[in-house]
Amino acid sequence: MVSSATPPTLEDTAAAAESPKMFQLYIRGDWAWVTGMIDRIKAAGYQGFCLTVDSALYSRRERPMSSRWSVDHTRAPQHREWQAKVTWDDVVRRRDYAGLPFLLKGIMAPDDAALAVQHGVDAVWVSNHGGRQLDHGEGTLDVLPEIMDVVGDAAEVVVDGGILRGTDVIKALALGARAVAIGKLQGWGLADGGQEGVVRVLDILDEELRVSMGLLGVTAVDQLNPSSLRPAHPITPPHEMRAWVHLPGTRLVEAQAAWPSRRHGRRLPSACPLVGSMPRRLVPCVSRRSQGTAPACRLGGVISCARPLPRRGEGPGLLPWFPHLRPCGTLPWRLKAIRSGATPMIIDTHTHVVSSDQVTHPLDPGARGWSTEVSNDVEDLIAAMDRAGVACATLVQPNATYGLDNASPCDSATQYAPRTVAVGILDPAALDAADQLSPWVNERGMQGVRLQSRAEADDPRGDALWQRATSLGVPIAIGGGQPEQVDRMRHMGARHPTVRFAPDHCAGWSGAADKAAMTSALERLAQLPNAYMRLSSTSLGPYADLTPPEQALFRRVIEAFTPQRVMWGSNFPSSGAGGYLGQVQLGQTALAWLSDDDRRWIMGETAHTLWPMLQGPARG
Ligand SMILES: Cc1cc2nc3c(=O)[nH]c(=O)nc-3n(C[C@H](O)[C@H](O)[C@H](O)COP(=O)(O)O)c2cc1C
Q: Which of 1, 3, 298 to mutate to test the pocket of ligand 1 (most atoms within 8 A of CB)?
């Protein structure tokens, strides 16, 4: 979402960012000005259009005043009058002229939400502008339930305000929002770590969301509903032993010294006193006027600060740091776990579709191997998954079948989304590999890329593709075979620490001549936090015939990655013994020493951390 108040020009931003974009317009002129802006927005390729309607006046913001920051000319009062004059008819006129999906941002009253729906908005955006406009206004979660009642299914509902943690996202979704947005949070990530910091913010949110869902006992967001929450009052004031640590005095600095860059990849920059990597320094959200009386987190919200904060009753309170922070909810909703009936979701991360329709999906002229003899249409695969109790799958483009044309897995995955996602193949050494990846991901929905190349895994020609995978947020699958190849993928993975990648088939461990050397190489690989391991049934099949010392080596590999970074895939129909069901059962039984919890991770939960968009079929 690009704001009209954000430099550089809307065209420059559009040209620099590949992801789908929406534009948020503040009205700063007459109809000719508005249509001129909308023409530019459309010409630049923005795919959604948003009007913000909570800014008729600019609030008195003490923090920018204290730092001598002033609004630029685009926000000057003489232009703002246009914003103040907007009527519902104007809204309709702008929506019709734009002809794009239309969002109305800044709705806080059910009556306004009803009017928005009547006037044909596509999305009602419940927002209090992050508490930056009306002081002492309501929290967005306070009004969300009533707005949901009014809007129903007539429009999408987006909510923002104080979203700082995965649990905040859960609360908003449970109350019915279709999407949440963040404002300050991404700003803090950006200030702390630039682009990498923003990615890290999203990674942390993503991880918190998944972990919290797991702890709640739900496997998909559509299992959340208002009954997952109950309003509650703060239980205790923040203290040092909380999960989200509140370190008094200078303890943060000491903690930082004792806990250097390992987890976040950097120390907090001393030049940036206000923000740190998020979970580092945590204090409860307070509203501007509460000045340190610190009601425990509203919306469960916590914020980060790298500067030691004064104790309650001492010093200037929180005002200098967070004068405008207003948490999203005034009710500190609590989450209720729903364990009954929540069964673990099995995700097959390595299965193949080979279409019997060779007119639509012709085999590559160089196709060879099993896929030239066996077809496995996506409908057949889904039926087999249903029989075997497999909820979701990543449809992996089989090697030597369609070359680098990923249409087959993409089409198949789209047909059964969100049960399926596609993992295509590209050659990382190709000059245009990165530019090929973007359209497959952005336009065809591909959610992972498998690398197939004559080049070595750490060939610098592959860096562009890894980098693009980072910015697109798609994981990488990579072949192995020998300890040296594993070391090479480790070099590459270390150069791109935010791409999650996994060798296929346990990096070929089962076929390795020197299993001890291979085990050591994989243990080294596992030291990279972004390295995952894919165990296919192909790698599990031979396990029963291994000698006990070899089995012990295999176990070391699993333990090095931990079940939280190991995922199973059937490799069906390439591995076909016992049919699909046989391959699934192999995954479920081959490693008898795994605990139920370990197995749950390997059979699905790890994969869900990589592909959180996967959702099993609706139950009952
Ligand atoms: C620095 C900053 C600038 C903002 N600029 C705009 C803007 O130009 N247009 C707009 O609609 N909202 C703007 N907002 C509000 C955000 O879009 C969003 O509603 C709000 O920040 C969400 O609350 P949160 O910051 O607590 O996540 C801005 C927020 C911040 C923090």
A: 3
Task: Please report whether residue 562 resides in a domain.
Answer: yes
Look at strands 449-451 and 420-426 and give their pairing.
Answer: parallel
The structure tokens listed for 388 are 């075997």
Residue 500's contacts (CB-CB under 8 Å, 6 or more residues apart) are 475, 476, 530, 532, 610
Task: Give the domain-ending residue among 131, 160, 189.
Answer: 160
Residues 448-507: pLDDT tens digits? 999 999 999 999 999 999 999 988 889 999 998 899 999 999 999 999 998 999 999 999
Q: What is the pLDDT of residue 480?
A: 84
- Note the pLDDT of residue 334: 57
Confidence of residue 374 (pLDDT cuts 50, 70, 90): confident
Asked if residue 160 has its Cβ within 6 Å of ligand 1, the reply is yes
CATH of residue 109's domain is: 3.20.20.70
How many alpha carbons lie under 13 Å from residue 380 in its C-beta half-sphere?
14
Q: Please pick, among 119, 129, 324, 350, the residue that the annotation labels catalytic.
A: 129
Closest CA to 555 of 547, 583, 514: 547
| C-alpha distances in Å from residue 282, one per residue of 238, 317, 587 | 9, 15, 41
Q: Tell me which H or E stretch contains 22.
A: strand 22-25
- Cα 128 to ligand 1 centroid, rounded to whole Å: 9
Ligand 1 center to 425 CA (angstroms): 39
- Specify the ligand 1 atom closest to the Cα of 164: 27
130/326 Cα distance (integer angstroms): 6
Residue pair 297/282 in contact (Cβ under 8 Å)? The answer is no
Structural domain tally of the chain?
2
DSSP string covering 153-192, please?
Answer: TSSEEEEESS--SHHHHHHHHHTT-SEEE-SHHHHHHHHH
Q: How far is CA 405 from the centre of its chain?
A: 27
Which helix (DSSP H) or strand (DSSP E) does residue 39 occupy? helix 31-43
Instruction: Report how far residue 611's alpha carbon sits from residue 421's, in angstroms, rounded to the nearest whole number.
Output: 8
Supply the Cα-derived Rg of the chain in whole angstroms: 26
Domain finish residue from 110, 127, 160: 160
Task: Look at residue 344 in the predicted model and tell me its pLDDT.
Answer: 80
Q: What is the pLDDT of residues 112-137, one digit of tens each?
A: 999 999 999 999 999 989 888 887 77
Residue 618 lies in a domain: no
Residue at 453 is within a domain? yes
Structure tokens at 538: 């192909």
Residue range of the domain that includes 523: 347-610
Atom of ligand 1 at shortest distance to CA of 182?
27
Contact yes or no for 443/427 (Cβ under 8 A): no
Distance 129 CA to ligand 1 centre (A): 5
Amino acid letter, residue 92: V
Cis peptide preceding 563, ω within 30 of 0: no
Residue 123 region by backbone torsions, left for phi larger than 0, else alpha for psi between -120 and 50, else beta = beta
Is 73 an active-site residue?
no
Q: Is 467 within a domain?
A: yes
Amino acid type, 346: I
Whichever domain contains 458, its CATH number is 3.20.20.140
- Residue 544 CB-density burial (10 A; 0-12 exposed, 13-18 middle, 19+ buried): exposed
> Which of 75, 568, 582 shows the shortest CA–CA distance to 348?
568
